[in-house]
Structure formats: C-alpha cells, structure tokens
Amino acid sequence: MKLILISLILLAFSLSVSAQQTCSRTALINFQEVLVDTSTSQKGEGLRYHLEKDPIALSYLDKYQDGSKMHLENTILGTTGSLLIISGIFTSSSNGNNKRLMLGGISLLLANFLIAKTLDNKNEKYLNRAVDEYNKRNTPRIFFPATDGRSGQFQIERAFSIAKSWSF
User: Fold this and answer.
1) For residues 76, 82, 86 and 92, what is the CA-based torsion angle, rounded to 10 degrees?
2) What number of other Cβ atoms are within 10 A of residue 57's Cβ?
3) pLDDT at residue 162, rounded to an integer
4) What sign does the CA torsion over 52, 53, 54, 55 have?
5) Span 6-36, pLDDT tens digits
6) Which residues make Cβ contacts (< 8 Å) with residue 50, sequence separation at least 6?
7) pTM exceeds cut of 0.70
8) Which residues contact 76 (CB under 8 A, 6 or more apart)?
C-alpha cells in the first residue's frame, strides 16, 4: 500500500518536471532568445508573431497547437485510473479485490501517461515543420539552441514513445 502511494507521488513529480522543461524552451531569432511557450496556455505561442508572416508555417503552428490541447480520452483514462486506485484503498476485501482495483488503476494511469507522451512527441513534428517552412522563405531565421545535430530541430526524448505503422 505504501509502495503504491510512493510510486504515485514519484510519477506526479516526474510529470511536473517534464512540464517545467516544456515551458522553458527558447528559440534564437536575430541573436535574441525568445520563449517558445509563453505564459499563455497555448504551446508555441511565442513564435506566432514571426510565423504569421508565412501562411504555410502558420498553418503548421495551428496544427501543433490543436494537437497539444487536452484530449478527452486522456482525461477519462486518468480519472478512471485514479478512481480505481481510490476505491481499492477504501475497499476492504478478504479475497484480494482491492489489490486488483489498485493494480488496474495503476495500469490505466501508466497507459495514459505513455499515450499522452507518445501524442506529444508525434505532435512536435508540426512545430518543427512550421519553423522549417518559415526559415525557407523568411528572415530572420529561427534556431533552437538544443538541437540533435540537424539545423534547428528540437531534440525529442523518445523514452516513452510507442509507434505503430500500418501496411496493407
């Protein structure tokens, strides 16, 4: 029981650290640092002023912002997992149903976390594409200090990514 509560606290802490990394992203424009994710709820809003000059880049920024909004499926999975854990804690059962409820809740929360991280990682391609399209036709160019070797691309952590390709 204590192990489960400690693991939930550690998971919540790791999620808050991940959120702080996202909010502090910067881009270099004309040798000045610009916040990519401003204090508004929209990710990538700090680049809107520059990307508005190019309609193609702006369309990719809009796709990026639409994809970074809260998804109903993630909310439902997270709420269901939390309710299962809470009901497992407060249910007294002699045949082990409370442990099954808690295990199911933890499994749902873990699956929800993996799905959300995967969607976020896949969504980053739209922001990269918006910057690439802008840099093709406009100046000053936009660069990201933390790169993976390619010019101006975000370094995306793939630790929790799940990919599936379909072929027919």
Assistant:
1) 80
2) 25
3) 52
4) positive
5) 776 766 666 654 544 445 788 889 888 888 8
6) 29, 134, 138, 140, 142
7) no
8) none
